[in-house]
Amino acid sequence: MKKLSLVLVITLLLINCSSANKSAKRVANPETYAKTITADELKNMLFTYASDEFEGRKTGEPGQKKAINFIKEHYIDNGIPSPIAEGDYFQEIPVEYFNNRADNASENVVAYIKGSEKPDEVLVISAHLDHIGISKSGEINNGADDDGSGTVGILEIAEAFKAAEKDGFPPKRSIVFLHVTGEEIGLFGSRYYADEDPIFPLKNTIANLNIDMIGRVDEKHEGKPNYLYLIGSDRLSTELHTVSDSINNATLKLELDYTFNAENDPNRFYYRSDHYNFAKHNIPVIFYFNGTHADYHRPSDTPDKINYEFLEARTQLIFYTAWELANREARVKLD
User: Fold this and answer.
1) Do the domain assignments include residue 120?
2) Domain with 202 in it: what CATH number?
3) What are phi and psi of 34, to 5 degrees?
């Protein structure tokens, strides 16, 4: 009897330990997924996206159509769905909307990962997919930094979140990956999404992280390139600014430069990229930017001039920030 009792006790202990392990909540480590964002993958994509084949990606033109299909195929290949309809990643914008600044209709590209706990709350990560096309001299403006760098950055961020979802760690809130058209001719794609056809209600949009040029180094930071300009992070939500700073301090420790965030910034960059169409609706924003350089809006903005190690680090920082915003208990507060 004593031997039998001992066997029963051991068996019960093993059962209890097994049940406890199964019930214990697994916790994701975002670093695991941030490390899937690599310089090699970013480079591989950008050498295609900013190649001559895409003809400078001018809004409505054949090269821009190649660009949207490149983005769409990436999401399909990675099993990341569209919120519009199954297989339909394009938010159509009629030619009339562009006020004679484009000759043809164009498209935003939209994909998303559904939140597990608060699916109706949405974080939008954006970048513009277009550029300025072919110069009158016949030279192609490849737009590797502007904004090929932001485009491939979003694709890598989306892959990282998808890898986490596959491992059983979907974001608590939904994340929308928004590639907008018509930025170079007047922020038209983001304005269409925000003003005319927000696929998700703006009141449920917790923040917009906008990426526009993150692959180069400007003149100010030559010799000390471990930096990134942030614009708008404290304009609508001090809490967003605090979260952003704390995430950077805990992860990449980049020098966050707020020069262009000044209210009296003569460049007025706060009003010149797609985040502004969210900010004007009282949605907290961060605009990530490396500053301008000699190749800005020139045929010489080519993928061989991108610093892919910097692009990797900056993209990883945006991923970490998005991870925190999507998974924290409460959405960031408006001031």
Assistant:
1) yes
2) 3.40.630.10
3) -60, -35
- pLDDT per position as a tens digit, 57-115: 999 999 999 999 999 999 999 999 999 999 999 999 999 999 999 999 999 999 999 99
Q: How many domains does the chain have?
A: 1
Q: How are beta strands 90-93 and 106-113 bridged, if at all?
A: antiparallel
> Does some domain include residue 5?
no
Q: Residue 61 is encoded by which pair of tokens?
A: 């033109």
Query: Residue 194 sits in which domain range?
Result: 32-327
Q: Which residues contact 278 (CB under 8 A, 6 or more apart)?
A: 124, 126, 190, 194, 202, 205, 208, 210, 285
Entry pTM: 0.93
Q: State the Cα angle at 296 between 293 and 301, rounded to 5°.
A: 100
C-alpha to C-alpha distances, 268 to 176, 258, 264, 273, 300, nearest whole angstrom: 27, 13, 8, 10, 25
Sheet holding 90-93, edge to edge: 90-93, 106-113, 173-180, 118-128, 205-211, 285-289, 227-231, 255-257
Inside any domain, residue 10: no
Beta partners for 106?
Answer: 93
Return the sign of the alpha-carbon dihedral for residues 147, 158, 202, 265: negative
Cross-strand partners of 107: 92
How large is the average pLDDT for residues 215-228?
93
Residue of 269, 271, 270, 105 whose CA lies nearest to 189: 105
pLDDT, averaged across the chain:
94
Q: What are phi and psi of 291, to 5 degrees?
A: 85, 170
pLDDT one-digit tens code per residue, 279-322: 999 999 999 999 999 999 999 999 999 999 999 999 999 999 99
SS3 of 102-143: the string is CCCCEEEEEEEECCCCEEEEEEEEEEECCECCECCCCCECCC
CA distance between the termini of the chain: 71
Report whether the peptide linkage leading into residue 197 is cis, meaning its omega lies within 30 degrees of zero: no
d(C-alpha 122, C-alpha 257), whole Å? 27
